[in-house]
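ok trying this again, last paste got cut off
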Amino acid sequence: MKQLLIFFILLCIAFGIDKRVIRETDLNQDPIIINVSGEVRNPGPIKAEPYTTVREILEQADPTDDADLSGLNPDMVLNDHDVLNIPRQKEPEEPQRISINQSNAEELTKLTGIGPSIAARIVEYRNEHGLFQNTEDLMNVPGIGQAKYEAVSDQITL
């Protein structure tokens, strides 16, 4: 009996649901507001139609030459009151330099043209003569001449 009652209640609920088709004209067509900030020439709120994409907002906001758009999906649909912050491109980082006064032989082999034997000579020279006073002192190590020094000079530091 309980099962029949539950079935009857579910049946009433199912037939009571409004099954009308939603027409596009019934949807809210009010403009949306997108707040744009960062590396753009026209920051601030931008009025747009519903279902506006990032690409369409960027056309209006006019990104600067320093803008980094690589992290944005241009086809993403925006919603009312979304915030679109356009970051600045990062400066290329300077490569890490290797210290000729502190690095061990294994780390020194990462330098262009420096193999295990020359790296061992650099450590041996440093142990016998003390720390290098300038990077040019590296040419005092047997096996390192002007050409080899020039090949590594932009990769080393004291």
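PB: full thing came through this time. The two ends are 90 Å apart (CA to CA).
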